[in-house]
Amino acid sequence: MIDPKDIPESQLVLYADDGYDSHVIRLLLAEKNINYYLSLLDSERPEDLRQLNPYNTLPVLVHRDFSLYELNVIFEYLEDRYHGHKLLPESPKQKALQRQLAWRIQNDWLKLGRILLTHKDSINPSQAKIARQRLSDALITLSPVFGQSSYFMSDDFGWCDALLGAMLYRLDEMQIELPSHLCRPLIDYQQRLFERHSFIQTIE
After folding, report:
1. Please, are residues 170 and 114 in contact by the beta-carbon 8 Å criterion?
2. Are strands 36-40 and 60-63 parallel, antiparallel or unpaired?
3. Model pLDDT for residues 148-166, shown as the tens digit of each residue
4. Is 52 within 8 Å of 8 (Cβ atoms)?
5. 102 Cβ neighbours under 8 A, 6+ residues apart
6. What does each C-alpha distance from 69 to 83, 147, 173 come to in angstroms?
7. pTM above the 0.70 mark?
8. Which end of the chain has fewer surrounding CB within 10 Å, N or C?
9. Sign of CA dihedral 85, 91, 97, 99
10. H runs (alpha helix) in the chain
11. Residue 65 to residue 88: CA distance in whole angstroms
């Protein structure tokens, strides 16, 4: 684990794994073209991590003398501090609506996704079956929405797309297959996300 004392004070350090939340933060950093040190950790969590995050979870973003470890808090910090490529609209109304959409994505879809992304030794098969069906049905039902604009409810890549992109990338892992005859708009949207330079950077 990188010792923050060995990093220039102005440099961001991201402690991450290959999980969903870490992927989202890496995507945000890539979209904003922010330089940072990446420390990839495996399933073993070093004891030093607890000094940065009492929950001992990843990702953890360290900047100067403080650390952040909650997905939305990290996003808001990056959005407020780094103004290149804003991921929320300028209008207070549109900004609030996008935040509300992001909350719904996390509350309705990602909650189901997290059940399916539980480690195989801990997953509850009956809960997983229900979650898989509900998430599949929701994606199929709302697929036409993804054909209305280039990105989710917007012509510009934003916060909602970062949340969705990392989830859609894990559909195979969640054993969800989108029927192409019903989900063409969503599949095309997914392809646009995966072809973005920022997204490619996060999976290489």
Report:
1. no
2. unpaired
3. 999 999 999 999 999 999 9
4. no
5. 72, 159, 160, 163
6. 21, 34, 24
7. yes
8. C
9. positive
10. 20-31, 49-52, 71-81, 92-104, 111-116, 125-142, 159-168, 180-195, 197-203
11. 27
> Could you identify the residue written with the tokens 């470890």?
69
Amino acid letter, residue 20 = Y
Q: Does 62 score more than 80 pLDDT?
A: yes
Residue 181 in tokens: 């005859």
| DSSP structural state of residue 15 | E
If you ran DSSP here, which 8-state letter would residue 148 be given?
S
Residue 9, CA atoms < 13 Å, CB-side half-sphere: 1
First to last CA, the chain: 21
Q: What's the CA gap between 23 and 52, in Å, rounded?
A: 19
Interatomic CA distance for residues 20 and 8, integer angstroms = 28
